[in-house]
Amino acid sequence: MIILGIDPGLNKTGVGVLKVGNKNLSYLNHFVIKTDPKESLVLRLKEITIGLSNIIKQFQPSYAAVEDIFYSVNIKSAILLGQTRGCIISTLVASGVEVMEYTALQIKKSVVGYGKADKEQVKKMVEMLLKIELKNTLNDASDALACAICLGLNLTNYTFRNLR
């Protein structure tokens, strides 16, 4: 079974692709869908929809996990992130992908074992668990892979011991 993890962002949306099976999670690919901040919101959401649709067509995932909105002091940023998440979830659902949502705390706790881990700790654990190197990879992609790992663990009730 193929799963996606998605770290939503209007500027950069990270997408991680994993294969779940045979009591393990295997890395397939990762992407960062970038939009131009000079473009209108509608055009940027369209770019995210097209990019995500292409990934869905290529990998045909059964499930996707989308990181939930975190508390934000900046109300405008929170609204833009909400619109981005809505676009992503709508694209997934329209493509027949079952969607789960996880908070950053749940993802970090699932992957690192500590809900307040920093981005570098998350990236290192993603590298260890998936046996890959993410040296020059944007945090958006490593966060998306962490989201996919969280989903994979929850779908299968695996533990860290099963992944090593």
Précis, in short:
This protein is an alpha/beta fold and 164 residues long.
Write the layout of secondary structure elements.
Blueprint: E1 2-7, E2 12-21, E3 24-34, H1 41-59, E4 63-67, H2 75-94, E5 98-102, H3 104-111, H4 119-130, H5 139-156, H6 160-163
Parallel strand pairs: 1-4, 4-5
Antiparallel strand pairs: 1-2, 2-3
Helix pairs in contact: 1-2, 3-5, 4-5
- Report the mean per-residue pLDDT as an integer: 92
- The multimeric state of the shown protein is single chain
SS-derived structural category: alpha/beta
Q: How helical, in percent, are the residues?
A: 40-55%
Distance between the termini: 20 Å
The largest sheet has its strands arranged as 3-2-1-4-5
Shape: globular
* Beta-strand fraction estimate: 15-25%
Q: Give the total of beta strands.
A: 5
Number of helices: 6
Which sheet architecture does the biggest sheet show?
A: 5 strands, mixed
What order do the SSEs take from the amino end to the carboxyl end, as H and E?
Answer: EEEHEHEHHHH
Rg computed from alpha carbons, rounded to a whole number of angstroms: 15 Å
* Uncertain ranges: 159-164
